[in-house]
């Protein structure tokens, strides 16, 4: 497992993976994505070129060679086998879930991911066995006996709010936001930008404000839907991160329609 034992090899894999996912990215983009200095990235790129894993397209832009693809494929396969073995060992022990109904120890149950949480209910053809009693809404440990489908990334709906120079929350369509939230009651609501926070409060919702972008990303990765109320001045940063994380999103214009 050389790629996990050497920081240099790990960075090499991440750079090649990013070039495969996004051929239009340059050194500066990758430095920002990996949180390392442009100088350090430049040194890594020199090594990759010398090892014939990438070729220069034009200044600052590169393409992965066939040799690079083979290197990436080999190491990703090793990682896949490692993680498959680790995950099977983790889930062969027990899973903590929220009971959708009263559960008794020894019940055959079905457990699944929904809205960012693992839930469990009784089922004759389930994929686990309850190891304790739980009333509806309580937590319970489940011993897996069958396959478990990992969560799909949750949808993100971006509700764009005008900057204060263009009216801010006064120019936002609060009624439209209320309807959006009512129609997606189980979605996490976050706000980015003061205008967005005020708009949420006008809609009768106290959103997650501090650390909102990180919450948005983490919630989606755990399968929870997210409504991100975002001031237009900071929307580009969120959109860029969502694209980098492979999370799909829709943008809703939250401005009041002019008569």
TrEMBL record:
Annotated SMART domains: HTH_CRP
Name assigned to this protein: MarR family transcriptional regulator
Lineage, uppermost ranks: Archaea, Methanobacteriati, Methanobacteriota, Archaeoglobi, Archaeoglobales
Organism expressing this protein natively: Geoglobus acetivorans
Superkingdom: Archaea
Domain HTH crp-type: 17-66
GO molecular function, one term: DNA binding
InterPro entries given in the database record: DUF7839, HTH_CRP, UCP_HTH_arc, WH-like_DNA-bd_sf, WH_DNA-bd_sf
BP GO terms, sorted: regulation of DNA-templated transcription
């Amino acid at each position: 497992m050389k790629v996990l034992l050497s920081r240099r090899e790990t960075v090499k894999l991440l750079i090649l993976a990013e070039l495969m996912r996004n051929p239009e990215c340059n050194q500066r983009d990758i430095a920002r994505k990996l949180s390392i200095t442009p100088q350090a990235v430049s040194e890594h790129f020199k090594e990759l070129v010398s090892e014939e894993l990438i070729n220069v397209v034009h200044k600052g832009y590169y393409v992965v060679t066939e040799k690079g693809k083979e290197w990436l494929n080999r190491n990703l396969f090793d990682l896949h086998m490692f993680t498959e073995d680790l995950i099977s060992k983790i889930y062969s022990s027990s899973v903590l879930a929220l009971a959708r109904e009263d559960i008794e120890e020894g019940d055959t149950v079905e457990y699944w991911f929904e809205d960012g949480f693992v839930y469990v209910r009784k089922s004759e053809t389930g994929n686990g066995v309850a190891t304790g009693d739980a009333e509806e809404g309580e937590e319970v440990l489940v011993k897996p006996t069958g396959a478990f489908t990992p969560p799909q990334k949750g949808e993100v709906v971006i509700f764009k709010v005008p900057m204060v120079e263009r009216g801010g929350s006064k120019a936002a369509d609060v009624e439209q936001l209320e309807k959006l939230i009512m129609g997606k009651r189980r979605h996490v609501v976050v706000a980015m930008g003061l205008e967005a926070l005020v708009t949420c409060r006008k809609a009768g919702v106290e959103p997650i404000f501090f650390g909102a972008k990180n919450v948005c990303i983490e919630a989606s990765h755990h399968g929870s839907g997210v409504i991100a109320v975002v001031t237009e001045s900071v929307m580009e940063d969120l959109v860029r991160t969502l694209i980098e994380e492979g999370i799909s999103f829709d943008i809703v214009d939250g401005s009041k329609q002019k008569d």
